[in-house]
């Protein structure tokens, strides 16, 4: 029902289509078994819950209204009247659901479920080879998510307890990079933020991650999966650094994003190592810009670690 709500609320659908769907949904609602499960109710409408590889389950906590996208009975590329396949529609619904802004739920189990289900759905999407039609869908949805209002997790303004988009943005970035590098970087850079730390970290001290409950007791739920989330943020940054090798402008932009958004000194140190390895990976001359990025991140690691020691702060501030 939640999945069909996404489809029926599509502003691009024609009125006659909605009327037809409503009639069909009422018909389906009158039977005891959902269509396609027992094969006895015909195939009047495309069932988008069956258009992705089996096993991708996404609950409402994780991907909004995008539910149970499984490939069971329908041929994935069976075409509709307007030339769109079931697979294309299912992928678009999945992207819409994954990009929705949602508040981090309470409790360890619920938070782990958010991460696990998102990663499972993205894993299934990665099995699909992108053709020109799907690339257009990715571009359209990326632009929409960047420009959308409060319903988008990649919008300009989000709630500070919104579930981060690092994992989803890494998938979008790698998918879009060969086709639209500018859009790929814009999407990934927007997703780098981690507002739950920015809203609680003491001014001038970003040397380590802060659990929100430890800073503001009884006001916000604890983020039990924060260490995993920060690891995903680091992976997104490392992916951008790797892709930006040889591009001075991109590398400077990614460096600024890392310095602004990553608060863990251990992850900054890891990125310094990654930058050094990427810069010296080939037998040719090392990438000077990447070496500078590695140096700056290394220095930032030392300074933030030193600032975390109370006895070191007066001397460092004088410097």
UniProtKB/TrEMBL annotation:
Q: Which GO terms describe its cellular component?
A: Cul2-RING ubiquitin ligase complex
PANTHER family reported for this sequence:
ZINC FINGER SWIM DOMAIN CONTAINING PROTEIN 4, 5, 6, ZINC FINGER SWIM DOMAIN-CONTAINING PROTEIN 6
Q: What is this protein called?
A: ZSWM6 protein
